[in-house]
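Researcher: Good morning. I'm working through a list of sequences from a screen, and I'd like to move beyond sequence-only analysis. For each chain I'm collecting a predicted structure so we can compare shapes side by side. This is the next one on the list. No need for commentary yet; just the structure.
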Amino acid sequence: NDAYMYGLRAEFEARYLRLMTEWGGYSGWQNNGDCPMTIKAKLGVPCPLGFEPYVAYQYGIRDWGYHEVRIGVRYSIDTKVGPLSFDISSSNISRGINLYFNFGYFF
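Model: Good morning. C-alpha cells for this chain:
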C-alpha cells in the first residue's frame, strides 16, 4: 500500500523450448529491507498433454541477497474463460514441495 512495484519481463517460446527472464522488485519507505530487487530466469520444455518440466534460478540483488534454484513441472489446460495451470516445484530455499495454482490471463 505504500510501495511502488516495478518489473520487466522477456519471454521466448519455440516449439520445444520456453525461456523467461525477469527483473523486478518494489520500493518501500522504511529502509529496513523493504526494497528488494530480484532477477529470475526460467527454462522450460513444453511436452504433449500440457506438461512442462522446468528449471529456474532467482538471485536477490538488493535487500534479500540469496540464490534460489527451483525444479518443477507445470501443467496447463486451456479453458473458455482462460488458461488454468498448476505448478509443482521444489527449491533449495523452501526445502519442500510447493504447489501453485494460476487461473486467467496475466498481463
